[in-house]
């Protein structure tokens, strides 16, 4: 079968692209190896709508997040996706962290984060009496979202415009042909199929580097190889769910590739702690949450929260970040690249789409749409 555009990956990125580009004019197919959407990273995250505070100015992560924050709230309003603009406090607990907090504030301003402001200790005492604070910032536009409903809204929008979906199909080979690409697919009954497409969009999350390699890219030479970095969560018992009212983030530690173990409020009012960061030695999707991490989580949360007891927390889920940045390496941005310069015109790679990918999804989809029009 011939398609104009094939998207590999039914996570939030592949689906947002399908929703953005489906208009009835192109023959589009989205291929996903699981039975339905969002079975990997897109359903194993904090479900926070970020504001764009931390990322280096002018990076794609910063730009797409600042714009994505607005576009995702607009989308949620328009398509009735459950969400809440709950707001987030970033908390410094001593003088040293307070200095870092100022750097974070300046970076946020440089990134164009509009409403971030300093919050006084008296404000915190009133709003968050269980939070220990030396100084703080408040980001009113940070929020929470039901990511399943978001993905469902993308799927519906794409289906309305006749996008095709192949669930339980796995891409196992890619070859360049005169017009575009032949794609080898393993069907659920074990049959091997070959389809063709002019444009191929690689939104394969944790395996996006391997898809690029299948298409003929030297992923070490081009620094596309991914590292798996697991983030664990611990849940706070329901009885303590009134401990905080907003998202509460510590000041991130230097040289740690995460935002620090924070408190996330869910749409139903329950609280969870995390994620931490653990680079995995092996490239496997192991989502276990070791119980022995309880000490680390309790100590981290207790450094800025009072009223939490050791037995108030218990292991919850985990997610794996598809990181371009290896352990101890410096910042790496998203790769969103149309690969004509590698002699692979019409191949669009999305690699290293870790946090804030959920927040950025609509802006990433717009970028990809522009690239398709260029192709
Ligand atoms: C712990 C953690 C916390 C996070 N918190 C936040 C947050 O609060 N806010 C935020 O904005 N972002 C957050 N993120 C980032 C966000 O979750 C990701 O950026 C986003 O989900 C990535 O979506 P995706 O579609 O690229 O990947 P995925 O959801 O992994 O989707 C990729 C899909 O491709 C499919 N696939 C792969 N290979 C093949 C193949 N060969 N054939 C067919 N299908 C294939 C997979 O099955 C998968 O379904 C977090 C991430 C993690 C890990």
Average pLDDT: 96
CATH topology of the largest domain: FAD/NAD(P)-binding domain
CATH superfamily of the largest domain: FAD/NAD(P)-binding domain
> Class by helix and strand content?
alpha+beta
Strand/helix succession: EHEEHEEHEHEEHEEEEHEEEEEHEEEH
Compute the number of helices.
8
CATH domain class name of the largest domain: Alpha Beta
Features:
single chain, 375 residues, alpha+beta, FAD/NAD(P)-binding domain, D-Amino Acid Oxidase, Chain A, domain 2, 2 domains, 8-stranded mixed β-sheet, 5-stranded antiparallel β-sheet, 8 helices, 27% helix, 27% strand, binds flavin-adenine dinucleotide
Report on this structure.
This protein is α+β, with helices and mostly antiparallel strands. The chain has two domains: 2-44 and 148-225 and 331-374, 3-Layer(bba) Sandwich (FAD/NAD(P)-binding domain), CATH 3.50.50; 88-140 and 227-323, D-Amino Acid Oxidase, subunit A, domain 2 (D-Amino Acid Oxidase, Chain A, domain 2), CATH 3.30.9. It has helices at residues 12-21, 60-79, 95-111, 121-127, 147-160, 208-214, 294-302, 357-374, and strands at residues 2-8, 28-31, 48-49, 83-84, 88-92, 117-119, 135-139, 143-145, 164-166, 170-176, 181-186, 192-202, 227-236, 247-250, 262-265, 271-274, 278-279, 313-323, 335-338, 347-351. The strands form four sheets. Strands 1, 2, 9, 10, 11, 12, 19 and 20 form an eight-stranded mixed sheet that branches. Strands 13, 15, 16, 17 and 18 form a five-stranded antiparallel sheet that branches. Strand 1 (2-8), helix 1 and strand 2 (28-31) form a beta-alpha-beta unit. Helix 1 runs parallel beside helix 5 (147-160). The radius of gyration is 21 Å and the shape is elongated. Flavin-adenine dinucleotide (FAD) binds next to helix 1, strand 10, strand 18 and helix 8.
